[in-house]
Structure formats: structure tokens, C-alpha cells
Amino acid sequence: MGKVKGFKEYDRIDEKYIPVRKRLKNYKEFTISPKNKELKSQAARCMDCGVPFCHSGCPLGNLIPDFNDLVYNNKWKEALDVLHSTNNFPEFTGRLCPAPCEAACVLGIIDPPVSIELIEKHIVEKGFSENWIVPRIPSKRTGKKVSIVGSGPAGLAAAQQLNLVGHKVTVYERDDKIGGLLRYGIPDFKLEKNIIDRRLKILEKEGVVFKCNVEIGKDIDIPDLESKYDSILLCTGSTIKRSLDIPGIDLPGVIQAMDFLTHNNRFVDNQLSDPLECYNAKGKNVIVIGGGDTGSDCIGTSNRHGAKNVINFELASKPPTERSGDNPWPYWPFTLKTSSSHEEGAEREWSILTKRFVSDSDNNLIGLETVNVKFDSDKKEFIEIPGSTKTWDCDLVILALGFTGPETDLPNKFNLEINKRGNISSNSNYQTKRNNIFTAGDCRRGQSLIVWAISEGREAAHHIDKFLMGSSNLPQKSSLGDL
Predict the structure, then answer these.
(1) How far is residue 399's CA from residue 254's CA, in Å, rounded to a whole number?
(2) 180-190 per-position pLDDT tens digit
(3) What's the CA gap between 147 and 168, in Å, rounded?
(4) Do 18 and 33 have their domain in common?
């Protein structure tokens, strides 16, 4: 590495934020970029560790020590090339990934790990600011045509990879803009949508064709689609929302997180003139049920609406602040994580189960009833604690409970199989029982991380190219340092 024992000289830094009172006034990103000198010192913390476990921690197999060394030596363009060799969209992962690579960092055994995600983000941002990121137009076309259904990170990654080797790629999206979860599920304060649009311009110049407001199976018949393309890739995501089977679930005021976030993103994008009252948290007592990233996004959005109060419920017990004995390095740490949205204002309640929603005589939501629980490790279930029932005042409840799987209408029309987990069934080559139809992303593996979606899209592209041409030069993660 460029700085031997640099990890002994420099402490970890994280990206700083503008003050809460300022950032709550709008939906813009609120991070403060570090100076190049600071990034260089952070890259210097990367150890000459011999076996870089960060490779295996990253679903993409990013060559992290390599680009850290290049940043330390001020070789930013070369660092960008290394980063792009495994990751099509580091501007997305650098903002949104929970950084499993950092959890697996060898330095993390004794000290805070290297700020890998911070470095990654600023490599690609420097690439855009210096105009180093330009369209890579294939020198020749293969004559093969591929359609991709769904324009989330898996679909976009596969599209770029397949286009790169000369196939003609068309991406179909049923929404009115490209991006899938990136555009409609992630708030602008975490990912401003111009970040997506600037990358889409690159893809379009490279030759990828995008068609919005087209729902396959409705606007285009399945036989018509199959007749036009040599292969089809389904990247439709995991979109069936998990709910609660309890009294009052259908009351006005009990809404799904993704409906709430999508509506707000459309409003911020000026697709709506005014937000609907049912999705407006202004002046309301808000309870968000679900403690993951989506729940956090709902908290941040509610605070920007001007919510009177926000409470976050989590079924599980409060995690420890440090790894427990049965959760050692380099596994993902099941420790307490506090997001920027939590810091903006939210009460957090743990080990709590919602039993029913309460309405007034006019059928308006006025509260919910809960009971405290504890996990029985022998029975593998949560046990209610007697005498712990409590009623909470609320005007708006947002269900951030995740997803159970992809919508099955489209795979059924393709006559595909759904596996026991509720996902589209495929083999290890991402190929369904229909040889020319492949699948990738959340609809294949279940609800997961954006970094996994990009990885799945890249892997599927390799296998589609091999299916079409007999062999493929597109990389796979296993050939890029996976342990």
C-alpha cells in the first residue's frame, strides 16, 4: 500500500452533514464533501492486510485496496477505472449501500474500519466533475436483441453490460420515468434524482433504449415481445408489500411506506402539484412500524413534512452497541445503527408488537394498541409480556415491513415457476425454465440491497451473453477476487 502503517497515523472520518434545522427545509442531499487531502489520509488507512476480506464482504467484489492505493497516490482516474471494472454505478452504492465491505475490513478487528464507501463515492464524483465518465460505445453490434423488463439497479446494470458487448438492449419500464426503486423508493435527501439522470444520459448515448409507461403483458403482449427479442431478462423487483393481519388495518391513515415515499418523490419531482392529505405528515402524530432503511426514510420524510411527532416501532429487541460473542468479525454486525433520519427527530421503541388500530366514531384513525414482547429462543417466536398493553395516540401510521416477493402476474404469463420463497425460480446461471428468459435482482433473490441488485444484473448479463454467443468475456464476481 501507498502508506505503510497509515492506519496508525490517521483516525477514521465520516461524511459530515449540514445542521438538522437547515436540511429539514428541503429534500436535497445534505452531506458535506471532505477535502482531497482528507480522502487521501482515509485511503492511507487501508492496511497491507494480505487477505482483503473487504472483497468477500462486497457483493460486487470491488477491488478496494487497489483503488484506495490509487487515491492515496493521487491517481484518481486510474482509481475510477478500477472502481468501474466491478461496479457500474458507484454513485448509487456510494450513497445508499450499508457497506458490508467495511464490516469485513481487517482494520475493523481493532479499530474503526476504512471509510470505503466515502472514498468510493468521491472517486466517482470526481470522475463526473472531471468529465472522465464518458459513453463507451461498442465498436460493433452482434445482431442480437435483448429486452429487459424493469429499470431498477439490476436492470440498468445488465443493460449496460449487455450493450457493452454489442447486443441491442431495450429496457421497458411501466412507470413514467426510469430508475425503479432508485427513483421512486429512495428519498431525494439520500439520492437526488439528477444523479440518476446523468447516468441515464450516458447509457442512452451508449445505445441502450428506454421505453417508459409500457407494462409488459398489457401494453405489449408476451408473444409479441418474445418474437422481437433473442433473450428476455426480468428485473421486476420485489414489490408485494408486507402488511399486518390485525383489526383496523384498513382504516384511513394506515398506509404503506412505499406508497408514502413514492408519492412524496413524485411531488418533489413536480409530477404532482400538491401532496394528497392521506400521504401528508404535516402536524400529525406519526408512527412508523419497521426499523429498517425504509422506515428510516419515512422518518426523514415525515420530519420534512413538518410532523408533530414521530415514533419508530421495532419488533426486535434493541441491538447492542458492539458485536456480541456470537456475531464475530467479519460477519455483518448486528449492532445498533442510528441513521441521519433518526438523528433529525424520532423516538425509538423496541420489543413492541402492534395489536390493533383504534378509530373514533367517524372511522378516523386516532391511535394504536401495542404489547411488549420478548423473543423465546427455544420456541423461535416472540412472546407477549402480560400487563404491557399500551395505547398510543397517532394520526398517521406508516407500515415499513418489507416485501414478500415479486408480483406473479408477469411470470405467470411467461409460464415461469415461482419457488418456495415466492421468487421467480432460476438456476445458478440466472436462467428460468424457459431457456431464453432470465431473471435477476430482487424478483430472483428476494428483497435485498442495491449493491446485490447491481451484482445480480452483472452476473445475469454474463450468462445471457454466453447463451447468445456461446461464450462471454463479461466479468463475473468470482473472477474478480471473491473469496
Answers:
(1) 7
(2) 999 999 999 99
(3) 8
(4) yes
